[in-house]
Amino acid sequence: xxxTRKVARTLVVLAAVGGLATLGAFSAFTSQAxxxxxxxxxxxxxxxxxxxxxxxxxxxxxxxxxSQVSCIRVNYTGSLNANVRLYTPDTIGALGPQVNLKIxxxxxxxxxxxxxxxxxxxxxxIFDAALSTFPATYAGGVVDFPGATSAWQxxxxxxxxxxxxxxxxxxxxxxxxxxxxxxxxxxxxxx
Amino acid sequence: MSASSDTWARRAGLAIGLLLALGAVLSWxxxxxxxxxxxxxxxxxxxxxxxxxxxxAAFVSAxxxxxxxxPAHGELRLRNITGTSVSVRLRGLPSGRDLDRxxxxxxxxVYHGRLGGLRSWTRSFVVGRGxxxxxxxxxxxxxxxxxxxxxxxxxxTVELRVEPRRG
Lengths: 191, 167
What we know:
The complex is a heterodimer. Chain A is α+β, with helices and mostly antiparallel strands.
C-alpha cells in the first residue's frame, strides 16, 4: 500500500470517529436544575415536673382555715417555643367553692418536691381564687411564661408555690364534703 | 524521510504518549486521606422533671477518637428533686448508625457495651430523695474498629426514664 493510500485511509477513519463523537456530543446535550437535600423533621414539645406522682395537697379531716403549701418545679425541654397554661381536666366537687387555690410562680435554688424552702416568688400570683373557678380547659387556662419572656424554650424551668386553704368561713353545710380527686395540669402547646 | 528517522519519530511519539497518559493518571488520582481523621461523639442528657442534670451541655465530647486510642471521659451528674426515691433507666439515641457497632460506651455501672446497645433502656438504678448521683462516662474505639470509624460523627441524646418508688 503506498503512502498516499495510507494517508487517505487514516483521514477516512479520523473523519468517521470525529463524526460519531460530534453526533454523540450533540445528542447528549442536557440541562438540569436540582433542589437537593429536602427533608421534614418535626420538633418536640416536652414538659415535665418533679412531683414523682405525689399530690400537691391532700387534706383529710380538714377544718376551716387549714392550709397546705407545696412547691413544684416545671421544666421545658422541647425544641419548639411553647405556651403553657394551667387548668384542671377534672370536675371539682361540692367543697370547691370553700377551698382557695393560690398559685405563685417563682424560683428555688435547690428544689425538692414538695419543699418550698428558699422559694422566691416572681411577681404576683397567677391564680388566687376559689378552686371551683379554676379553669377547666386549656383554652381558658391560666397563662404563664418564665420570667418576663413570652415563650417557653428548651431549658426553661419555673417553680410554682401552690397553696390550698379550706376557707376559715366555710359554712356548716361544708362539713363532710369533698372536692374530689383532681389534677392540676400544666399543658404546653407549641406557638 | 529515511527509515531511521521514521523509527525514531515513532519512538518519540510513543514516549510522549506514555508520559501524557502517566501525567493524566497522576493528576486525576484522588489524594489519600481519612486514615488520620478521628471519630467524633457527643453525649447530651435531657433532664426529666424529676431530676436535675448537669452539665447542661454535653457530658462527653470526644473529638478525635481513634481505634485503639485513649478513651474520652465525662461525668453525668443527677439530683433527685422529687419527694421520694426514684428508679431511673437511661437510653441513648444516636443521630446516626455509623458508630453503632464500633463505639464502646460505659456509663457508671449502668451500661457497658456498644453504642447501638444503648438504644434500649438500661437496667434501673435508684436515686434516693434529694440524693445526688454522679455517673462517670467513658467512650472509646477498640483496636478492632481499625479505620472503619474514621471521620464518623454522632450526637447521642441520652434520655432518662424516672419512676417513683413507693413504699
